[in-house]
Amino acid sequence: MSPVSPRVIIIGAGIVGANLADELAILGHTNTLVIEQGPLDIPGGSTSHAPGLVYSSNPSKSMTEFAQYTIKKLSSLIGADGTSSFLPVGGLEIATNEERLADLHRRAGWNRSYGVEAEVIDADECLKKFPMLAEGKVLGGLYTPGDGLALAAKGTQLVMERAKAAGVEFRDRTIVTDIEVSGGKVAAVICGEDRFEADIVVSCAGFWGPNIGKMVGTSIPLLPLGHQFVWTTPAPSLAGVNELPNGASRPILRYQDRDLYYREWGDRIGIGSYAHRPMPVDLDTLKSYRPEEITHERMPSSLDFTPEDFAAEWEATQELLPDLRNTQIQRGFNGIFSFTPDGGSLVGQSKEVDGFYAAEAVWVTHAPGIAKAVAELIATGTSTTDLSDCDLNRFEDMQTTKEYVSETSQQNFVEIYDVRHPLEPRTKPRAVRTSPFYSRQQALGAFFLEGTGWERPHWYEANAALLESLPEEWAAPERDAWSDKFHSPIAAVEAWKTRTAVAMFDMTPLKRVEVTGPGAGELLQGLTTANMLRAPGMVSYTLLLDAAGGITSDITVARLSDEVYQAGINSNVDVAYLNREAKKFNAANPGKWAAVRDITAGTSCIGLWGPLALDVMNKVTDDDMSNEGLKYFRTKQISIAGIPVTAMRLSYVGEFGWELYASADVSAKLWDVLFEAGQEQGIIAGGREAFNSMRLEKGFRSFGTDMTSEHEPEQAGLGFAVKAAKTVDFVGKSALAARAAAATKRLRCLTIDDGVSVVLGKEPVYVNGKASGYITSAAYGYTVRKPIAYAWLPLSVETGDSVQIEYFGQPIAATVVDDPLYDPQMDRLRGLSLASTAS
């Protein structure tokens, strides 16, 4: 690699840092320095003591891909003894109750959705695969033959050797004391008296990551927690089973009903427990060792064992594995691992400092895969695996506070093996972020779910009284117990009233930014797929792409005036991206500055939608809100009862109406004025369940669920958002043609044949008996009277084809249909059908 290539400094030589250096070298980048505070053979972090269990099962497609790459890479790393760094012994997750057994079928579905071999086996098969199990204790298990044990320390040493041979420099026994920043970019890493210049710095420091982040003013929201692990004395039934002292031949074992896991360790059993109380670690008081003092038994990440926290789990273990009654606990320790507010890893570039990256809260299971993704980010600007659900910048500011990180991370530790519904909200902290309408929603009996700290009404108990007048054809069928959780039949009422009368939806939690300045339009023009230089008053639905043509967000942009744009975006990741690009734009265009400001907290949004919405609006404003006064996808400033409002003629539910934006200080009055004015029209407040149903009926996509950077616009059904006439070379434009030509799958709409079964997402879809895709979004369609689902399926699948969805191990027949299912001619949205249909 040319010496003028960017100088990369990696902090931490554990399994993540070492693999990152290796992956960069594979891509031809060897101008890299890896700095490690401990000795390279025993860095002293989690890698040195990780038990090495690699399970692929994960609801996240990206995390599954990372695990699969870990297996592939470690299997290819062969030591001097001729053996690899991965033991493919398989994985076995057992169930001792019916709820867990059902969940194992769901987990098997995740695997098959993402191309991982898995099967649910009966109790007899479980005993054959793990003969130590007590007879009659286990009901069944999930067996994943490709999973197994990562020999993390061995694999890390091998990639270090390979990286060194390629020209990568490693320095151990070196402590980072500061990171120098100049002009908003990293400039150097300081280690005592030594200064190492850098263009890019990557923190792979593990649970020390927060301290590294502080050096550049970047929050690394993780909490180090103690986690118990023990080894038994030799078990009689394991005598002679494994040749190597730390070898294994039987599957790694999870006993999730008791928060325990097991692995063979020669003639002993290693046991890990999440059943104990959370044990947060204060980095400021954590005992430190000089590099020469670190041994396998004594290292910073290994705390003293607390036997009182393991007593009940040892008893449960001996009941599950009776042969261990003939053993004792030979040694135990409390190892430190990293937990985050949502349980995910922290990956990507800082929003505060250019050139500072993190790859933190990464477990051995995903380490080589995430290292590969970060290497791709550094070398090419994009990762081949979508990173949206582990992006460092995904959290809101309140989610990165010490108190929030501590409380939520400890809760995630406690719940790590729990059977959790995809809609199940956290129990605390709650009511952290509330819209100006919160007290009104409480008075209407709102049932709240939580997202990014916001309280979001899912339905309103006040609307239960309307169930008696709900037309029979609008009533949804009964659901199975799983899909019935966090569901209410009231959602049918709210969909009915939206489609036939008028409803108010609180859209405040949806993220929005203001982009201002003489260069605002030009900035957005270069980042989006639509024309941003249209006249003020125009609104555009558009996409943000990465350089490889993958979708990184779908956004709605309104030009409010010559130099003011308002964009509805998806998350804090978009805010970070827009700010970073604005900084680059301003540096290159001194006379055409642009500024990006998050206005979400200071504003509110009400979606007022339905065929009678205009009747309500005409009561509260003198502004012309008719089709002629404000056309579809247009915006203007209006006054509602003296309240300044930005009205946008948009609707995510597919009905005539507006998104109404107001300053937070006057928003409560806006709600009251609209709600009172709409009483004659039968106005109601509607929640997220009805909202989601109607958006799927209309075929509207949701970023992060229906499409990610893995997908390109055309096959995601969003080709219309890429304006062919746009001549500006926007980000990703040059890659689109090749990307579309290489596509093998397309997002398709399905309807469930039995008209009853509701799936929830991530289930595998079978085409001609083969798992060929997976569900993204799903809901019961109250207007179309049938369950709906969207799925990524092969291009060969055609409209009318029959497919099967695997739901808890059972097949559900579905049919591929054209979308949208509701109002395909757009008459409702365009206001061409405003006659009342209320009944």
What is the topology?
Elements: E1 8-11, H1 15-26, E2 32-35, E3 53-54, H2 61-76, E4 86-87, E5 91-95, H3 98-113, E6 119-122, H4 123-129, E7 140-144, E8 148-150, H5 152-166, E9 169-171, E10 178-182, E11 185-191, E12 194-197, E13 200-203, H6 209-214, E14 223-232, E15 252-255, E16 260-265, E17 268-273, E18 302-304, H7 311-320, E19 329-339, E20 346-349, E21 356-360, H8 367-380, H9 402-414, H10 438-443, E22 446-451, E23 454-460, H11 490-500, E24 503-506, E25 512-516, H12 520-527, E26 539-545, E27 551-561, E28 564-568, H13 572-588, E29 595-598, E30 603-609, H14 613-620, E31 635-640, E32 643-648, E33 657-663, H15 664-677, E34 684-686, H16 688-697, H17 736-742, E35 745-752, E36 764-767, E37 770-781, E38 786-794, E39 802-807, E40 810-817
Parallel strand pairs: 1-2, 1-13, 2-9, 5-15, 13-21, 24-34
Antiparallel strand pairs: 3-8, 4-8, 5-7, 6-7, 10-11, 11-12, 14-17, 14-19, 15-16, 16-17, 18-19, 20-21, 22-23, 24-30, 25-28, 25-29, 26-27, 27-28, 30-33, 31-32, 32-33, 35-38, 35-40, 36-37, 36-39, 37-38, 39-40
Helix pairs in contact: 1-5, 1-8, 2-8, 11-16
